[in-house]
Amino acid sequence: MTTSTTGRNTGKQVILYAILILVLLWTLVPIVWMVLASFKPGVAQLSSTPVFVFKPTMQHYVALFTGGNLGAYFLNSVLAAGFSTVIAVALGCLAGYGLARSHFRGKQHVAFWIISTRMAPIAAIVLPLFILFRYVNLLDTIPGLIVAYLTFNLPFAIWIMNAFFMDLPPSLEEAAMVDGATRFQAFYRVALPLVTPGIVTTAILCLVFSWNDYAFAATFAGPDSQTLPIAAAQLNTQTGLNWGQLSAIGTIVVLPMMIVGLAVRRYLVKGLTLGAVTGE
Amino acid sequence: MAATQGRSSSATKGANGGGGFSLEMKMLIPVLALLAVLSLFPFFYIIWMSLNIVSLINGISFDFAGLANWTRMFTDEIVGAAWARAALYFVATVGLEMILGIAIALLVHELVWGQNLVLSLILLPMFMAPVIVGLLGRFLTDSSYGLYAFVLRELGIFESDILGTASSALPAVILMDVWEWTPLIVLIVLAGLASVNQYVIEAAKVDGAGYLERLRYIVAPSIAGVVIVALLVRSMDAIRYFDIITVTTNGGPGNTTKIIPIRLYETAFRFFDLGYAAAIGLGMLVFSILVANVFVRILESRGLAR
């Protein structure tokens, strides 16, 4: 925090808060409006002037879970995002450590290959995967979605875990080995626990990326593997713009990710800049 | 900070006694092999697709066509227009996000009270699924029930259907992207501002430097690297995602929001011209590889990638 501000500039602070309140309005009004709409009765929904006072109802949530099969979509989302996250983080720890602690010729090319895999445009990846998935019968399956999500989560996890392990002085592992630990024990018992914040951050970001995916699921998923974002988009076209249910599904998709995302805010910068910037 | 580390791990390497691969390589190689299956295989496959006429009618058939898809792409006016529109969309979204993101970060950095709370609230949109942002954008701009459409109508600024009108659809989808991703820039730039040397700032104050002078001569040079990282990270993601447009306008009205990934998607999955779509996809891939290349070079110059 700045040491410059010692209260003498109260006038300036007032202007500052005034501008930031505008910024917060711009940021928060859509989110608040969506959450409010999800509790609004249908009549209030269809008013041409905005309704601010209404009797809250759970009807949209109830309708989604009873008639809309939302439970199944929710489970699909959890399975696809969850498994791809666990696999990516576990393998990312191994390879990230290997990358951080080894030196070989052409290492920068390997690093570049990993990062460019993460950055490849989704539209370009979806295309060959679609044909390949048809050959191996992975279309409209949860394992297919897990594989699809690994195409971006695995390179991401390797890269970020590499960045976290690089910040760890190897001397700690060396000391453990002097004390009789094997090379693997030095990794597993010493290095790994020390990067716990890194593991949690990586896991949460992988979860957010795959949970929020639309393009892969829209192409690969079918009736048996539909995820929440697809269900939301389809709601929009099938039932003729049911904004109440849409707001409810939007709230269900969005709130968990906001909570877990903010939980790792300290480490977000490092994760989202792929290790290039370290926060706080 | 990482500059002094990493190198000394050659010491640990000596300890694994030689013979075969070191543990590091044993941990690295199998995972990279899996990544190769996930990335190189599709990569070579899409190159092969781009050299064929690919049809999905009765199974999948490949019909070797040489460079036909490629020559077609370079003379295709619709694809050219989609690239131009993508460039406009890219410059507008990323440009606005950078300007607003830096400005908001500078403001938040000066806050005495509630900095953490304000930042947390500002960050919320970037955790949202882009598809929900698009649907929410549709909801807010809906000409009958939309809150923002209502406000604009009451203020007499805009009366027609926002996403259905050619002149307003592109600005609307740009603003949705700006709404979602400006927080990312705020977050990254704030991290840069937190690392500016406070003693230098104080010294400059003592010497009578005003806020703008400090910004120009001390803050700007110190955060330049972080700002470039923010720009590159955002640029790479900006060419990855097209969800918002897909669920709002899907390229319309009258192609005004049809950026290149949307065109690729309809070429592949509406016209089923998969070979041609592959050529377009490779064009996009080349672009993202160029950006990734600059990113890695900057990481190297900051001593973070080895």
Structure in a nutshell:
The complex is a heterodimer of chains A (280) and B (306). Chain A is built from 14 helices and no strands.
What is the topology?
The complex is a heterodimer of chains A (280) and B (306).
Chain A: H1 10-38, H2 42-45, H3 59-66, H4 70-101, H5 107-119, H6 122-135, H7 142-166, H8 171-178, H9 183-194, H10 196-211, H11 215-220, H12 228-238, H13 243-263, H14 265-272
Chain B: H1 10-14, H2 23-50, E1 52-55, E2 61-64, H3 68-75, H4 77-110, H5 115-123, H6 130-141, H7 147-154, H8 166-194, H9 198-206, H10 211-240, H11 243-248, H12 260-269, H13 274-301
Antiparallel strand pairs in B: 1-2
Considering the chains and any ligands shown, give keywords for the structure.
heterodimer, A: 280 residues, mainly alpha, MetI-like fold, 0% strand, globular, disordered N terminus, B: 306 residues, 2 domains, two-stranded antiparallel ribbon, 13 helices
What does this structure look like?
The complex is a heterodimer of chains A (280) and B (306). By secondary structure, chain A is mainly α. Chain A folds into two domains: 1-28; 62-272, MetI-like fold, CATH 1.10.3720. Chain A has 14 helices and no strands. In chain A, helix 7 runs antiparallel to helix 10, helix 8 (171-178) crosses helix 9 (183-194) and helix 10 runs antiparallel to helix 13 (243-263). The longest helix of chain A has 32 residues, at 70-101. The N and C termini of chain A lie close together (10 Å). The model of chain A is unreliable at 1-5 (pLDDT under 50). Chain B has a two-stranded antiparallel ribbon. Chain B is mostly helical and 306 residues long. The radius of gyration of chain B is 24 Å and the shape is globular. Helices cover 71% and strands 3% of the residues of chain B. Chain B has two domains: 2-50, no CATH class; 76-301, MetI-like (MetI-like fold). In chain B, helix 4 crosses helix 12 (260-269). Chain B starts with 9 loop residues before the first helix and ends in a 5-residue tail after the last helix.
